[in-house]
Every structure is written in C-alpha cells, then in structure tokens.
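Q: How would the structure tokens look for this protein?
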Amino acid sequence: MSSPLETLSAEAQADLELVKRGCDELLVEADFARKLARSRNTGQALRIKLGLDPTAPDIHLGHTVVLNKMRQLQDMGHTVIFLIGDFTSTIGDPSGRNSTRPPLTPEQVVANAKTYYEQASLVLNPERTEVRYNSEWCDQLGSRGMIQLASRYTVARMMERDDFTKRFKGGIPISVHEFLYPLLQGYDSVQLKADLELGGTDQKFNLLVGRELQKEYGQEPQCILTMPLLEGLDGVEKMSKSKGNYIGISETPDSMFGKLMSISDTLMWRYYELLSFRSMADIANLKEQIEQGVNPRDVKVALAQEIITRFHDKPSAERALENFEARFKRGEMPEDMPELTIAGQLALLRVLREAGLVSSASEAQRNVEQGGVRIDGERIEDKGLVLEPGTYVLQVGKRKFARVTLSG
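A: Here is the predicted structure in token form.
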C-alpha cells in the first residue's frame, strides 16, 4: 500500500516542500500530506493557526521567521488565523522558563496586540488574514467549562513537559494555574478547527496538547510545524533586543542595510533560508555563483534590498544601497574591519577605548572635539553620548574603524 507522500500530486508535493523549508519539525508529515492532497482535490482551504500572546509590542526579524511561513501558506490559498491570546496573556506561560511570565493588564494586552498586528501586517496580507481573540470562547467557559476541559487531559501527560519535569525534580514550585495555559492553548485549536498550528521550538508541547484535545472533541487532529530561532548579528545568540544583536522591522532603511551587511558570509545563507522569499533553487544558484567567483558582498546586498523593500519600499532600499556605497567611495568605511562585542550600555568615550581606536579617555575626548569621530558615517559632537545596545560602525580619523556590538 502506497504512503500519502508517494501519492501526492506534483503540485501538492511542491506545496509540502515549501512548507517544510527552513522548519525545525513537521508533525505528523504523513497526516499533513493527506490534508494538502485533500485541499488540492476539493479546493477547501486549510485552516492555519498562529497564536501569539502580545507580551511585547516590538517585532524584529527573528519574529518574522514564523510570520514568513504563514505568508507562504497564505499565498498557497490557505486561511491564516492570527490568534491574539488576550485571555491567556492574563495567565502567563513559562515556556521553558523557571518562573511564570508576568500576566499583563487588559490595557497592556490591547495596546500590544494593536501594535504587534500592525507590524505583522508588513509580512502577512491583512485582507486575507482572519484575526481572532481567544477571549471569545475562554471568557464563556466559566468554572464548569474549565473543569470539564481539565478532565480531558491527565496530570501524567502534563508532566511530560520538560520544563515541568525539571522544576518538579528540582523542588521548584509549579502553580496549578500553569497547567491551564497549555490546556487553553489547545482548546483554541478546538474552537478554530485548526488543520495546522505554527510556533517556535519552545512551544512544541503546547502545540501537541492541541492535537490531543482535538481528538477528545471528535475533530481531526491538527498537524504542528515548529520553526527555529534565528541567530542574531553575532551569529551565535538568538536574535534578541536585550542582547543588542537584532534588526527591528521598523528601523530606518540605512540602519537595516548596515546591519544586514555586517553579518558573516556564512550566516547570510541562514538568513536567506529563513527570511528571503526566493526559492531554494534561486538560493542554490546564488551559492553556485559565489563558487564561480561572484563577490559574496553582492549577494548580501541583494538580501538586504529584498528585506528593506518588504518593510519599507523599493526606492528606500535603493537609496540605502546608494548611501552605503557612497560611504565606501568617500573612504569612510572599509568592507573589512575589526569586530567585537561589549556587554552593557556604555559611554562613547569608553567604547572607543575598548575597541582600541584610541589609547586613552583624553585622546577619545580630543578626537570628538576635533570632529574626528563618526558613528555609522555620521560625525559625533557629543562627548557625553551614551550608546544603547545595538551594532555600530565606529570611526576615528580617516583610517581607524571597528564594528562594535553592545549587548544588553
């Protein structure tokens, strides 16, 4: 008897390969192949769910990895459900942490959700996105409904969650309400009749709970797709605002361009795979061009322009490239320069010393006073300037450069 994967049409097989691109895990692949084949045969769109607790309003490129996958599924014709966890945000999900995440006030939830969706709409097609709030059904559960929901899952299964197991063995308290979070996230899938739910690798347990609860409620269980965490500019730590290695999607085109050009040639391919909308065949062709002598810098420029065009527009991307190249022509910024990471929010004068661009505080101060210090090509006149976490190209005089990342 042939497997679902063997009987897929060429179109459905192509869809499956695109869905799997860059993902960490697809469970269960054979089940999802059946769903894709059925959707192709009937014309009935699959229901794709992404649940987000609006704990923070700002989005960086790391967040867009899962949003890009949603857009791919949307472009295939499937129904994308952007689920805002306004109810579950009031509980707090540890998600692998050793303590619960602080619950939000209703006002914080509303404000964050509005900002988050506005930014997410730069990736998703707003006209083809179904926006839902899980308070629609969670508020109606009441005490009786919550008890009935809890009766459909065992404590033994709940303790299979790695975080709960470690905390229990380590004598770290686990509050009863923490068991309710994965139950309610799973109940969201029941209410939405989800065919596929997406999430980060840290959400795998909660996604599987949704699959089991759908079986309990007599529904076809959803498949789950987990996406990897994108490395930040340093190529080591995951992209994070607190670590200062991030690229915010609302940053200026020049800032985005400079940061993207600072990533290593190796990390560039990771960004292409998880952030670019180019096909894998196109990306393979770019790799082949580099092997044949094309400068990796040119390929990195293409990536930077694609991403800036997505979050701003094409003219902005072209101007960012022109500004970047103009700095090279003026001799303001070499392609290769020393790179280092320094912890904390620091005064400019100290950063200049730490980067080896000056030998003393007095030399640093003198260079600023004489107009010899630039940050990302802009002359600095403030001797008391304090640099926030982020990545900067520092210049002293005409020939001394360093790319410095300040981690939070």
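The domain at 253-329 is CATH 1.10.240.10 (Tyrosyl-Transfer RNA Synthetase).

Confidence is low (pLDDT under 50) at residues 95-100.

Upvote if useful.
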